[in-house]
Amino acid sequence: MFTRYPVCVPAFFYLLTTGTGWPRLEKNGGMQISFGVTTMLDIFDSTCVLLAKAEQKHYLYTKKLLTENDLGITPGQMTVLYTLYKGDGIPITELGKKIFLDNSTLTGLIDRLEKLELVHRAATPEDRRCYCIFLTDKARRLEQAIRKTMAGVEAIMTAGCSPEEVAAFRKVLHCIFAAL
To answer: Quick check: 46 pLDDT over 70?
Structure first.
């Protein structure tokens, strides 16, 4: 019914298997985490289920931190802003290709970001049917807080892992992404 889980696992997967909640950050910035040998549900012997449940936890935790930090955005909106921080003023089609979203999904995200006054659209002079997406000053003021939130999520997810393990984990994620 239960299988043993390896001792050396990212905090993120530890949380999936124990249900004990997220590690607590101590006031001095350190983390209080205990990685004993635990058990996991039989369904986590499937990489597909484990990855899906990990992403679900990642999304919920990111959403929680965005709310706690009063950023007023969703994880999906954060991804759009993060991409635009790397270069805004791009057509919505190009933005969609960068974040692997279709135009209809991305249009909804952009609409909500516009309502939050974080982005604006501007017609391109060459083709008035094409709109480029630009960050607002308000969005630029949020950049450091958004990046700090993303770094916080990553730190919790990879707590207890060596830099080599994190690099290997990222490599596996890239392989999964490329294969599908």
So the answer is: yes
